[in-house]
## 1
Amino acid sequence: MKPLHALGAGVVVSGLLLAAVPAANASTGLVIGHCSRGGTVTLQLQNSDPGLIEAGFEVDHVKAGSIWTVTLTRNHVTYYRGAQRADTTTSFSVDRVLRAARTNLIIGTATNKATHDICYVHGVI
């Protein structure tokens, strides 16, 4: 795996300041983010077949059965928006294969409206 690089000092989401996390910047990378109430969010990015990117977004260590609104974007264009329910292992994931652009900034957010928990992660591949 190639080195991870930081992108900025912080991000404001719904009035909550979240610390910036390292972003993947290579042919493959794993970025670990944080949730405002103690969970963990990860973004796995990988160049697969020529012209394609595999993007895996996972939230872990959250309450089993909790419902989350997930938004995933590439270069500020939404490619996934939907609801996910944390399973009995207290996690959920969304995996997609995307067409690669010259630069691919992937941003993932998950929001639990019941607890106001917000998870954020971003990576560049």
## 2
Amino acid sequence: MFAELYGKATGCCGGQGRLDAPGLAGDGMLGASAIVAGTVPMAVGAALASTLRSTDDVSVAFFGDAAVEQGVMHESLAFRGAALLAGGVRSENNLYATLTPLSQRQVSADIWPRAGAHGLAAVGVDGNDVVAVYERPRWRWAAPGAARARPSSRPRPTGGASTWDPTSTSTWAVRTQGSWTAGWRANPIAALARTLEPGAS
């Protein structure tokens, strides 16, 4: 998988896959999707397959905050809840859908409580607080009827894969320098260092 991300011939797609394409189905990694929320129905389908095959496999989907605005996510979670499928979802709420702030798209900054509408348990944790993430209860996977959703984190924007150009005036018309500065100040590694070594910068 890592060889693929570095474009090497030994990668799972021969080094030719995009960042959101590689997968190792034989090892349970179904791959990602360039479609927003596209991983959620994949995970629910895998959970259904596990149920039909009577295996103890657990599927997990990872997605960003923009996924909660997609109908396929809600349809998939509604089916998962109704069918009592084992598995979970993990949302990373970084408060932006590429360049559009969550405050311009949603009424509430917290997206994890929406799992309750589909009969799924959920918890939220500050994804920039390493200790808080560690101390959350471990994933609780049991019988399909007791499946639990993965905690939702809410890290501040500190970078990541994107196609936007930070030197473009159109980028900064939406995303201010102040928002980036606030994100870097909330860096979880630096915060952990301050916790472990008081006085560290």
